[in-house]
Amino acid sequence: MPYNSSPLLMRDDSGGRSYLKRKSSSSQRGRRSEVQSPIKGRSSSLSHEPSSSSAAVMPNLNSKTVDAAFVDLSPSFWDLLPYYLPCFSWIPNYTWIKFGGDLVAGISLASFQIPLALSYATSVAHVEPLCGLYSLAFTPFVYAIFGSVPQMIVGPESAISLVVGQAVEKLSSHNSEISVMDISVVLTFISGSFLFIFGLCRFGFLGNVLSRALLRGFISSVGLVMIVNALINELKLNKLLKQSEGHFHTPFKKVMFILKYGPKNYHKPTAILSLTCFVILMMLRIIKKKLMKRHRWPVFVPEILILIIVTIFLSARLDLKHAYGISVIGDFNTRGLDSVQNPLSKSNIELIQPLMGSGFSVAMLGFFESTTASKSLGSAYDLAISPNRELVALGSMNLFVSIFGGLPSFGGYGRSKINAFSGAQTVMSGVFMGAIVLLTVKFLLSFIHYIPVCILSVVTTIVGISLLEEVPADLRFHFGCRGYGELAIFAITVLATIFYSVEMGICIGCGFSVITIIKHATKSRIQIMARIKHTSQFVNPDDFLAKSRLNYGSVFKELEEFEGCLVVRIPEPLTFTNTEDLKERLNRMERFGSVKAHPAAKGKRTKEGTRYVLFDMDGLTFIDSSAAQIMLEIVASYKKRGVKVFLSRVPFNDEIRARLESSGVTKYVQETSLPSTESCDVDTKFSPYFASIEEALSSIDECELTSATSEYSSEQSSLLSATLINSNLV
After folding, report:
1. Do residues 194 and 395 touch, judged by C-beta distance below 8 A?
2. How far apart are CA 227 and CA 238, in angstroms?
3. What is the rounded CA–CA span in Å between residue 409 and residue 401?
4. Sign of dihedral through CA atoms 492, 493, 497, 503?
5. How many CB atoms lie within 10 A of CB 562?
6. Architecture of 527-674+685-714 per CATH?
7. Whole-number Å distance between alpha carbons of 716 and 707
8. Among 191, 104, 108, which Cα is nearest to 415's?
9. How confident is the model at residue 399 (pLDDT cuts 50, 70, 90)?
10. How far is the C-alpha of 587 from the C-alpha of 124, rounded, in Å?
């Protein structure tokens, strides 16, 4: 960071040499400076007061006085209403043009989201088909009131449905009397409660805790698990899986099951139909992607819906169930709209404890996935997204849909992107989609009876493959950037999900991310500063040391430091997490001159050589009481060793200064005299805070001058005593 003046190079008033030595990396230790001090009569750019040089750089900038009344700190009720109920921000400006765009987008979304919702419910979550349809139908209405992202489309998600499916498998295998509808009700209620409470407590910052590598690793592992689970239905091995001895709950064990029993026990007609539909869908997707590069209309082609309509017709006409033994959805509970569920009924309360972990995993995963989608849409369309409001919206809609038994619902980036591309203007596109789903539930459920189960599994396989499409690009990116930490998180999450469970993958991945964050938070980032020779710029020599090893030695040789004085920069808040590490790093700097040196190395310095320590606290934005206590121990230790401590550029923050004073830190540091405001003021006031580094270094130079003068007086006194003694002897 540049300095407008060269500190530590001071002359006394009589024009003598500086009493504080400097040491250049290209010169011998102890060489005294012959450079005139530039501090006198000049203001530093590091000072809290503006300098004339700064003003000269910006001569054409206009300025105005900061008026506190200009900032509206207490908005009115009508200003707050659109913030907490975002629907009031778009309803007054809704037009027929927006209505048309939202209607077209809603119809397009419903055409391919209805088959996906059925696939997630039956093939992934292992619940009633209505659970997926209700989730897709009701949640957009609630999100239209509380949601703040106009193009966001909410509904059941593949990864979330997989977590639900594993919970259903686990409970149903131990107790077949438990209703899958009750499991769906309780899981959705638990996840909605977590999200709603987190939103009220303003825990939206949690969206920044987990890295994108973790989310990508989990989504990729979910894609693999979806493909494995779907393959069991595509080969019609699901009944054999339930009847076989042993537990095949983990994805890895299911792969071993397919390899062991699949070649001899697969159902040939089901496998042929599944393979044919899979090839057709993949070909259509490839053709659609190529056409979308030149035209817009292919996005409105619902290839999945067309395939399902054709298979429904063939299933009803050819009687695939009885003629070929191909399983169909068949009859299912259609009384969902006639009665609502009570998530807190006596039987459901008993399910809360075994489902609490899965519910929390659903809430966290759904929130992170929705946050990723909202941030992506927000950056693409220049929207201000509030994670706390999104938490409230997600929690509210899941609490509402839980009374109908719907699957947990969250925002998805893929369908939201298609929604925006289809011409959607507001959240009403989701409302139109939900209305179409409700009409389907009311009048078209009889046709769903004929859908082959393997076709929905094929749709699940297509979705799983789409989740893996971005993995190679992400891996190449992190390899190219040498992001081995992100690659480790990715690998750990994938392996834990495949070899154990989705919940374990989330827990281990989140735990690894949190440990990484704690590691970075507890690591002190203090820097010992050195000056570039013949300039007024101070830099961190560790950076130059690294460059010198890469054949940039000439740059490093131009640095110079000053004997007996450590200029320590603290560019971060001090808390109990990083201040303890500050002590160790200060000790390492005194011994080795660098915080990057290994503790086992042989230090070329001694602590006795340190006479002054200057803390530059310009980057200090906060200090807690634990950090103040450790800081007190540091400065007291320096005081005990006879080392003078200086505090410069301490922020004008009442909390920071009050904590430094109340903890007693300021009692052990050097003081500076404050300029008198009145000519008649006789008493000089002192402050422990130096306004600039230059001011502190001037004080250090004065201390050196005083010390040298006293040493000279002592030598003269000793010489006089020796002369008197010799004369007496004579």
Report:
1. yes
2. 14
3. 9
4. positive
5. 22
6. 2-Layer Sandwich (3.30)
7. 14
8. 108
9. very high
10. 57
14: its two tokens: 């009589």
- How many whole angstroms separate alpha carbon 107 and alpha carbon 152? 15
Q: Where are the alpha helices (DSSP H) in 201-250?
A: 212-234, 238-243
What is d(CA 148, CA 154) in angstroms, rounded to the nearest whole number? 12
Rg (alpha carbons) of the chain, rounded to whole number: 36
Tell me the C-alpha distance between 388 and 370, whole Å: 12
> Distance of CA 183 to CAs 320, 363, 448, 457, Å?
31, 15, 23, 22
Q: Which residues of 467-488 are buried (b: 16+ CB within 10 A; e: fewer)?
A: bbeebeebbeebeeeebeebbe
- Tokens, residue 104: 């077209």
Q: What is the rounded CA–CA span in Å between residue 126 and residue 110? A: 22
User: By C-alpha distance, which of 168, 167, 174, 157 is closest to 128?
Assistant: 168
Domain layout of the chain by residue ranges: 87-520, 527-674+685-714
- State residue 48's pLDDT score: 39
For residues 453 and 328, the answer to whether their CB atoms sit within 8 Å is yes
Contact 215, 390 (CB under 8 A): no
- Looking at residue 133, its amino acid is L
Q: What is the crossing angle of helices 96-119 and 129-146, to 10°?
A: 150
Under 8 Å CB-to-CB from 575, ≥6 apart: which residues?
622, 623, 624, 626, 627
The residue assigned the tokens 């805070």 is 689
Residue listed under structure tokens 């130096």: 690
Contact 659, 574 (CB under 8 A): no
SS3 assignment for 360-382: HHHHHHHHHHHHHHHHHHHHHHC
Residue 569 forms beta bridges with which residues? Answer: 527, 616
Query: What is the per-residue pLDDT for 4?
Result: 40
655-672 per-position pLDDT tens digit = 999 999 999 999 999 988
d(CA 699, CA 697): 5
Structure tokens at 410: 């969250």
Q: Which residue carries 């709209």 as its tokens? A: 337
- Check residue 327 and give its pLDDT: 86
How far apart CA 661 and CA 645 sit, in angstroms, is: 15
CB atoms within 10 A of CB 665: 22
Residue 246 confidence class, pLDDT cut points 50, 70, 90 = low
Q: Sorting pLDDT into bands at 50, 70 and 90, what band is 443?
A: confident
Give the Cβ contact number of residue 58 at 10 Å.
Answer: 8
- d(CA 438, CA 133) in angstroms, rounded, equals 8
d(CA 438, CA 445): 10
Rounded Cα gap, residues 120 and 161, in angstroms: 6
Report d(CA 105, CA 113) in Å as an integer: 12
Q: Where are the alpha helices (DSSP H) in 266-404?
A: 268-292, 303-318, 320-324, 346-381, 387-402
> If DSSP codes are grouped into helix, strand and coil, which group holds residue 23?
strand
Q: Alpha-carbon distance 40 to 535, whole Å? A: 17
Is residue 596's pLDDT more than 80?
A: no
The residue to which tokens 């200064």 are assigned: 657
Q: What is the 3-state secondary structure (H, E, C) of 336-352?
A: CCCCCCCCCCHHHHHHH
Please state, in angstroms and rounded to a whole number, the distance separating the CA atoms of residues 597 and 21: 24
Q: What's this model's pTM, rounded to 2 decimal places?
A: 0.65
Q: Are 271 and 236 in contact (CB under 8 A)?
A: yes
Neighbour tally for 577: CB within 10 Å: 17
